[in-house]
Fold each of these.
Amino acid sequence: MVTLKLFGLTLLFSLPLGLLISFGSMSKFKPVKYLFKFLVWVVRGTPLMLQLILFYFGPGLLVNMLEGAGVNNLLTDMMRALNQADSLIIAVIAFVINYACYFSEIYRGGIEGIPVGQYEAGYVLGMTKTQIFFKVVLMQVVKRIVPPMSNEIITLVKDTSLARTITVYEVIWAAQDFVRNDGILWPLFYTGAFYLLFSGLLTLIFGFIEKKLDYYRG
Amino acid sequence: MAVLQVENIYKRFGRTEVLKGIDFSLEKGEVLVIIGASGSGKTTLMRCLNFLEKPDVGRIMVDDKVLFDTEAAETLKESEIREKRLHFGLVFQDFNLFPQYSVLKNITLAPTLLKKGTAQEIEANAKRLLEQVGLLNKMSAYPCELSGGQKQRVAIARALALNPEILCFDEPTSALDPELTGEVLKVIKELKDTGSTMIVVTHEMEFARNVADKVVFMADGVIEEMGTPEEVFGNPQSPKTQAFLRKAHEGF
């Protein structure tokens, strides 16, 4: 089912990409830091629907422009490929970038919230930076970010419906076909039940994870 | 032979000069207690010894090996610093235990990562240390289930697990309720009896007097006075030391 596919693929790619973006926006190298901060600002500051439309129509426009200017390089090829790509793939790309930026801010909050003493304890015990991150900090970050993450992921469930603007045949659109073709309204309400069930299931899963991590405080 | 020699340490943060030329040495098995008002540079000195801060000027030698020397002027690689800081252990004021790990895992984590022995050896050693600080029965507990005093004793065991030549304590009882300081001070005293070389920053004057071989009084980034406890507490020479000790005695 298209909605589930969009949801799953978005999570699969945006969770790790968000971590990379959060590292970028915490970089000690100022140009990298501000580049990533700018990216996050643009992506979070514009509607997802607009970003979908950009990724859907943008490549085609660019191909025309580039071909018009006689440019034929890797960029042109990439844009051509995007232009011909399935609309679901375009939607996944736009969703991944959008959600990765939101996740990156959650990660950043989680990482920056770890007391500096935890790092120092690791240092004086002779651990490397990598060991400190993976063995000391990461688990504490996970515990901190589960509640805001569950919030964001439940929002994603419902945001998938936006993909219809670029012809992705997701569940609401499918239901609207019934309205159009058969003149019946209730399939539309079934989609409401679907979203409720889906987010209810996620709520249960996140509640379970929170409980699992409840064995310690701090 | 001095196990530790500290020469001419300077450190400034922005415009504030925190350490203005610190010199002292420490013999094997000696306990050095550093006292002084807040802001006198005690903690910064301790952090310099543990490579958490880098002195602007100065030299640190352990067992006649140069660990740090601004004259040498080479930048140390992270791996070199890591090796050098293992000469020291540090117990923090606010413990800094790893909350997600059990007491035992807190102690075994670093030796395991540093491959200091087989898993059995490391665990046996950790249990021996827990016994030493009187917390073997709390082995499987998590830090959040312990009292402050117990946490600090675990932190001491954790620092000991790496067998540092010199164990540093940065105000180990300052974050504790008054009735819990005793158990931590007792552990430190027992360590002295087993011949550990230690540097202790503390506000516990009674303890300093009892446990120190050498007392350093710091004021405004310099060592104002240094000597045996009898000398510093019994017959302080500097007016600043006299004033500080008078205030400490008066209490509140």
Amino acid sequence: MSQKQYLKNQIPAVFVNLMGMLALALFLLANGSSMHTVLFIFIVWLIILITYLSITYYMRKKYMDTLLDMTEQLQERYLIPEIMTIPDRADDQVFYQIMKMAEKSMLEKIGEIQSERKEYKEYIEQWIHEAKTPITAMKLLCENNRSSFARDILTELEHINQYTEQALYYARSEHTEKDYSVREINLCDVVHSAIADNKYLLRQSNMTITMDELECMVYTDDKWVRFILNQIIGNAVKYRTGQPALHFSMVKSNDKIVLSVSDNGMGIPQSDLPRIFEKGFTGQNGRTGKNSTGIGLYLCRRLCDKLGIGLTAHSENKGTTIALSFQINDFVTGVQG
Amino acid sequence: MKKKILLIEDDFTIQTQLKTLLAGNGYEVFAVTNFSRAIGQIKDFLPHLVILDIKLPGSNGFEICSQIRTFSDIPIVFVTSSNTEMDELNSIMLGGDAFITKPYNTAILLAKIGALLKRAYPASQPEMISWNEAALHLESSMIEYKGQKAELTKNELKILYYLFRNAGKICSRNDIVDFLWDNQLYVDDNALSVNMTRIRDKLEAIGLTGFIKTKHRQGYTL
């Protein structure tokens, strides 16, 4: 509360007081009082007036400052009417009422938006599940009637499936807490199932796949890791060059297991590398008409963060290596011996 | 004897196609069409394994599963399009043996079915498949012809297994590679040629000359 502004607001009161003083002075002088008496009364009056003004100013300021402090400390500031004491002053009460009303409409709006979002998310999830039935049916139809035509369709179906999965995980990545279960899984199995998910895509692009010994147990959610690997494999296919090759390797150290997926594709320019996990970032490769969305790796990073998996990318001129590092939990393995 | 599989799936296309796929892989399949009568049909058909969709009109897979478990221990494979943790947990709690999400990889589905059947009904004699006096021993990875034996690598065994299983039919190179990929052997076209040459050498050594015939531009046949 600024002092100057407060004083300005008090001008009418001061003015009324001065008028009163003037009237009293005239009255006293007319009644034959001495100049000394009048001056004395003036001074006393002024002292009382100034004291009154400063005391009310400081009390008001203290009240307002606590209110301001309380608001600043609140995370949801619009909830301040809930914790402040109901003011005594009539005009303050009006403001309090206004704040209450504003808060209520704010809460209603937030509730509305939240439930709309929830409904939308549920609708998206449901839609994806519905869409998976015809995808499955088409896949079976193609597998039962093998031909080069069916093979091409199967490749496209893998694309569709990847996009729907992306949408599903995007919708879910906000509320992931509810949807993962960490258990002991074999890295080898996840890698194989991720390759199986992209079989026709990899076959069509003539990808050579090699892998080291991957027999290793880690504690994580297999569905999520599979999704992440799918995105990485998808990228390797998308940015492939001449004779594409994909290599899976694993390094085990004391406290972590690092799964690396290396391709020999076009690689990522050094200047783009720090930003590839950002949402919507497509970089130089994206600008050369590769139909990049900037969503895949962003989602990978998001899911990895939630699962506590380290995600790093490495690229030198040609080829990219994406490494996933899983923490080995001493507590679990230690207890189980 | 053919193993019997009961299919409980409401989508008509998936139902018929899955039936074709399973029948093509040597199973006898029966599809339930009236889902409220599923239990009765299980009791009539006496399947070795049940494939169960979770979302069904007028019923649901969990219910059927817990009903089956009251009288039978047959393997139950859940297939569903919703891959939430809740569903997976429920299916395990109610006694499901496997949980596969759509769109499933047919190779994985078949492998899971095969593994479950093997576990539930262990075969007594070692697995062997034969054609024209030549016998392929799957467990020892050997091919035998008139008392002579040759050892096979993993790739070679799988290639021969595929040819034996489709004996008499023409198997395209693409189909063979697909099959190898389904068995987690990521072989490309060149490697297949190398493997075929090696197989032919080994076959010749045990007296099987010209056992695998090449059909120009179509593939191989036994």
Amino acid sequence: MRKVHLASLRVAAIAAAAMFAVTSCSTGGGSSSEEEGGGGGALPPNASSQQLRDHSISSTKGKKAAFVPVGLGTPLTEEWNRQLKRGFEAAGMEYVVRDPNWDTARQAEAVQSLINEKPDVLVVHNFDVQVLAKLIQQAEEAGIYVIQINMVSNYKSDAFVGADTIELGRRMATDIVKECGEATSTSHKVQIVQGDATSGFTLDVMAGAKEVFDQHPDIKIVSTQAANWDRTKAHDITATVIQQHPDLCASWGFWDQMQYGAATAIKEAGKIGQVKVFTSDHSAITCQALRDGLFFQSYGYSVPTQGTDIVSIAKYLLQSGKEPGSARIADFTPLVKIDRSNWDQPNMCYDGRTDGLTVS
Amino acid sequence: MTASVTSRRPGPRRPPERNVLENETLGTRLHYLRRKIALQQVFAELFEKRWMEPAIPLTLLVGVVVFFSVATPGFATPENLLSSAAELAELSLVCIGMAVVMISGGIDLSVGSMFGLCNILMILLITLGGVPVPLALLLTLFAGAILGGVNGGIVAYLKARPFLTTLVTLIVFRGVLNLLDLNFSAQTATVFVLDPMWEWLGTGKVAGIPFSFVTLVVVLLIGHVLLSRSRIGWHITAVGASRRAARHAGIKVERVLLLCYVISGALCALAGIFYAARLSSASARVGEGLELNVLTAVILGGISLSGGKGTVWRAFIGAATISLLGKGLLLMNVGGEVLQTALAAVLIVAVGLDIKWGKNRGKAIQKTYVNPTLLRYRPAPDVRRGSGSAYEVNDRLLGAEAIGVGEVEGPEDVVLDSQGRLYCGTRQGWILRFSGRDFEHKEIFARIGGHPLGLGFDAEENLVVCVGGMGLYAVSPDGTPRKLSDETNRDWTRLRDDSRLRLADDLDITPDGKIYFSEATTRFGMADWILDGIEGRPNGRLLCYDPATGTTRTVIRDLVFPNGICSCHDGESLLIAQTWLCRILRYYHSGPNKGRLEIFMDNFPGYLDNINRSSDGGYWIALNGMRSPAYDLAMRMPSFRRRMMKRIPRDEWLYPSMNHGCVVKVSEAGDVLDTYWDPGGEAHATITSMREHDGYLYIGGLENNRVGRIKLSGSGAAQVDNRRPQSSARPVSVN
């Protein structure tokens, strides 16, 4: 599914997802007549506008959507939460968020309790590829549409919305090779600061990076450690690495919030001019760090639109009348490179609080 | 003096359990009623219960369940409870491990790391290692035990402090876990294990209940038996309560400590296995901060941080409270930070309560245990010389011969056998026998224990003894003691279990061979019976032991300090002397008046002890102390006595006077015939018993160092066997 990377434009991605779903629907023959809740299945092509409207509204009104992030309180998860809340509530749906506060066991509990409550749509942000795998399967069997966000599980559900992490890994690695590869007069030493080692994000980015680095044996990965998305851990790991390798060329961390700690450690060591700090995500801290010369480069993945994409896909699933688990689609949001040259352009970074949209 | 009811109809109606004075108004009666109710007593007796210790955590648990059932719609559903059970099981297993360590006086902060490490180990074994599930299970359990063994070894044999040791191992184990995570987790992440047993471990159900919860129940039962019923369990508790005392008692302290930590490690492993099977998450985060939740749960359950106290159930109650609290807040969509804060608040409250409660519970019970009630007396008869009263002081005991001076301590009662040998109990728990012409030959007839009080011979010449603190015993003529009874039917209207006999006091044997005996009070023991006098409540009872069936039953309950028991000359009634009420009841146990209870005599000038028959058809009554106007007044003022107990030290309290008494002889009709005094109280101050035999009166005292004897003159010396009522068929033996 990951290879269905069609375009870097969001609209195209949604269109692709919709097409994929419609195609499978039509090839599925009679399966579309199976009604799911108030979904009502397919409308005839000549249905009136009123009928279309009724069908759409009745499919979503009074339904329930739930969101389980790994933990609220970060710009990333807050932004998703804000968009989801606005989108689902505007569609007349009930929306709840269960916050496990960075505790794997509690995340599993939260999903388990939601399976018991049977919402219509469940949005999960997987801690790692395993922890929710069985539960997502159970949720689908219980008739819940499950949409995964940004960090994928081993069990692929109805839809995945997030960065194309394999491609992200490839691009980032390519950029690093450009800055630290054999063509440069650097030490070619690169430090990698992972998130949780078993996180889908980490695994996929590493897979993409491996493809590139395997072709460039000149790049020396001097340290690959998991800072578990934690700024302090990233700081402490990097402070040690920079001592061991004062000639480090690049430090690559998988999340801006975490990597800010690594950048601080490098700055404290007085090496911020020499060591190039790479990261991904584009919350306000990225733009600040680029402005201050802490970060060298980041990849944004259109976080503010991911929430609305999820709402769109949820609406599609609810109206399609398909069985939960009958589709496996992915919506990869566009990757945008942000560096010291373009960070100050409008809407490069999000702050988790404001955007141009208003609640209807 | 007889105040018997005129109606001859035998009925259950009994005189009020207080001194009824003339012209009692409604107000007085209400006053009595108000003083009869003692909420403090209910409180004290409730909190004395051992099962009250986990009552507060249990109430909290019930409160949490009820609150969330009402406040959160999804909480009380079977699905939620079942899925909660699986999560609870893992937490509880770790909590039980922590509890065992804490009962042994230690603490195990490394539980979270051991849990996480065993989780990842189990996953590595079955994914990358390809080890069969049962073997992997055993290996992981073993690994858990080894981790615990590391803790235990350092704590027990290197004598390191548990807190620091396990704090260090927390970091070390977590470091190992991080290492494994970094190197192997990514590879495990994409492996799907399809072993059905593995599936079943995670999601299997026994009778609809998650397998992990069933395992928890089994562990709880085994843990309960092990901790409370087995030698090793008692050793663990002993080591936790006082390590030094345990060592002195010969317990191998090091081995016990090591075992506790090994148990903790193995239980963490078991929990980790279930977690692994349920979620297959080889994340380094697993178990992070778990030690805090576990500690909160265990302390909340009421397991003391100072060791030596706790059960597995309390650990479970604490775990369930924490787990359900978390679940409930989650279902209410409360944020994660709020949950942490709530847990922290609960921990603070729990630790605070643990300290306050543990420290002050005993004190609170002690302060509220004695509950004075209202008692009134008519003005006491004058006993002064020349007063002309029947109780007038005289010098009749001055010339009493002393038997066994300095050789006997506390002969509460004395009795003589058919050969004229004298028997008395002592505070050492012995029965002494004096024989010879002048009782110069002393021997220890039997060693029973407790404090032998009332004595009596049955038809087979067995000496029946009421032993304070033990119950009713019989000593055969060759000196072998055996227990007749130490329990009766329990009074279910009382909170305190009163089935055990605490203070069997005096006895007498009726012609049909039944042994009637009094239990002076069920609330106080031999050491503090005098507190019953400050309280003045009906705490005693009349019991009957039937040798034919070997059973004891309560005949009359709620009596104010029944002391002396004497079978009347008619053979169908008993006299019951009530110390604090200064009156004597007559109870008909058979005959036409069967079941009738009436007042035989009242308003004595002193506090009554034993009663015995005299040879001329009357009765001897021992007064162990004299009433005083001050104490009579104090008995009318319960709140004064309560204040006294709260405000001033115990040795300055006003007690019933127990330092001077006399012997009173009364007729069958209840008229005072004679008194016998030792005015200076030099030889016989407190008199608790007297026994007429062969023209002599033998005198005993609970605090005395001798048995006294005086020769009776005149009609009092008629040679009648006074040990048994006249209706007895036993032949009279005269020495």
